[in-house]
Amino acid sequence: MEQTTTQKQFILQHLQKFGSIEPLTALREYGCLRLAARIADLKKDGVNIITETKQSISSITGNPVRYAEYKLA
Fold first, then answer.
1. What is the pLDDT of residue 7?
2. Closest to 24 (Cα-Cα) out of 16, 13, 35, 39
């Protein structure tokens, strides 16, 4: 039986390789629409992850937007 890699596993591998991940990266690379939920799952499994709130300007509206960046502690 072939085992598929879960989104949670992809996110953890990404964190281990790059040190951090943002929602748009999770969506583009892994099809993960609910990154916060996968991060909560990883934290529940004992992975030490910190959340930083970032701010940027929307390229569409020109308004400020906030998003989370998750980093391995």
1. 95
2. 35
Scan for tokens 């953890």, then name that residue: 12
Count CB-CB contacts under 10 A for residue 21: 26
Taking the C-alpha atoms of residue 56 and residue 41, their distance in angstroms, rounded to an integer, is: 27
Report CA-CA distances (Å) from 1 to 4, 54, 58: 10, 42, 45
DSSP type of residue 38? H
The CATH number that domain 7-72 falls under is: 1.10.10
Taking only the tens place, the pLDDT of each residue in 14-64 is: 999 999 999 999 999 999 999 999 999 999 999 999 999 999 999 999 999
What gap in Å lies between CA 20 and CA 67, rounded to an integer? 13
Residue type, 38: R
Parse the chain into domains and list their residue ranges. 7-72
